[in-house]
Amino acid sequence: MVKVVAVLYPGGPAAKEVPELLGCAENALGLGPLLKAGGHELVAITDAGAELDKQLPTANVLIATPFWPAYVTKERMERAPHLKLLLTAGVGSDHFDLQAAADRGITVAEITGSNVVSVAEHVVLQILALVRNFIPSYQEVIAGGWDIGKIAARSHDLEDKTVGIFGLGRIGQRVAARLKPFDVRVLYYDNRRLSAVEEQVLGVRYMHYDAMLPQCDVVSINAPLTPATERFFDKRRLAQMKKGSYLVNTARGKIVDTDALVAALKSGHLAGYAGDVWYPQPAPRDHPWRTMPHHAMTPHVSGTSLEAQKRYAEGIRECVTRFLEGRPLDREYLIVEGGKIVSPSYAYAYGKGT
Ligand code: NAI
Fold it and tell me: Does the annotation mark 240 as catalytic?
């Protein structure tokens, strides 16, 4: 008998009303029938603290999502002697200590590609929300006002602007593709450069970040959280950005320095910030990004549209099925295997840094 523990967000009344809400604890990624049929145990919980600690000593497989993360540290892995597989229902497995998992021979996998379109759409939405000054405009309507001057004084066209993409992987490339009709100049930095043909098709130009940041009106962060990207956008890098520019981060909250960002928005150096990723998550009520000026933040929802949930739930069921049958997981999904960090996006940073 295999014990699968899934830490998932509480769906509330929507869990019943919308059965497609597969990523919540109540619906547990559709794993219930699959595990029951094989005589296995499924424990779906929402508490990534004490309740998870209680389950760890007997867990064989642990599933978590980036939206409602379970931070599985080295110490926690030490308390889980039977843990063989850590799965991320979504993309981005930084909530697991990847090196510790490798050292303990635990396999880590995520559902590569499952929500990349969902996030790319959200990035474009948030770029437009900032540049067009949408949020204050909407709030003006709700407040019963009609102050055109106040709203228009901070509203621009995106056309003719320069957008920089930091991390041009699956999401970054989709952002570039979706920005094409807006007639913008797209620059990118990634530690793996695309071929000249790929760059031409996407309409992007490679540039080192030191040269790119001062030129961009908008920067979108689409790189994973690794030792090389943690707090990469600190006081110094934010100062490198063009005055009056916008930063959108749907990658991970920790890539941006919390206090340095608030200071850059308060001073007016940055004109706005948007994204859906925070640290920690769920963000506490007094998280400074909730109340900083000129933001268009959402909770971590971009990669969990109903379509995305369908895709990552299918991917998780496939991984669990293969694990139960003793078959190897899809190589595309593997982050850590055989004592090594094998995903190119992560391995580079753990090995060499930016
Ligand atoms: P990907 O692996 O396809 O692309 C990541 C890109 O970042 C790669 O091209 C890689 O070479 C590059 N990269 C790695 N380290 C870098 C560094 N130090 N500097 C510059 N570039 C670097 O991953 P994908 O699917 O595009 O996702 C990217 C990230 O977005 C994920 O790791 C995750 O953290 C986040 N994400 C957020 C979601 C959300 O709901 N907000 C959903 C899905 C992903």
Answer: no
Ligand 1 within 6 A of 168 CB?
yes
Of ligand 1's listed atoms, the one at least distance from the Cα of 173 is: 26
At a CB cut-off of 8 Å and minimum separation 6, what does 35 contact?
2, 4, 41, 42, 320
Let me know if 13 is exposed, middle or buried by CB neighbors in 10 A (0-12, 13-18, 19+). exposed
| 311 ligand 1 Cβ < 6 A | no
Contact 249, 265 (CB under 8 A): no
What the chain holds in terms of domains, given with CATH numbers, is 3-114+305-350 (3.40.50.720), 116-297 (3.40.50.720)
Percent of the chain with pLDDT over 70: 99
For 268-298, what is each residue's pLDDT tens digit? 999 999 999 999 999 999 999 999 999 999 9
Strands 334-337 and 41-45, bridge-based pairing? unpaired
Nearest to 110 by CA among 80, 82, 85: 85
Residue 103 CA, ligand 1 centroid: distance in Å? 23
pLDDT at 352 over 70: no
List, for residues 196-245, the tens digit of each pLDDT value.
Answer: 999 999 999 999 999 999 999 999 999 999 999 999 999 999 999 999 99
Residue 27 is a catalytic residue: no
Find the helix or strand (DSSP H, E) in which 258 lies: helix 258-267
* pTM, to two decimals: 0.97
Are the beta carbons of 341 and 350 closer than 8 angstroms? yes
DSSP strand E in 53-105: where? Answer: 61-64, 85-88
3-state secondary structure at position 278: coil
Q: How far is the CA of 116 from the centre of ligand 1 (A)?
A: 10
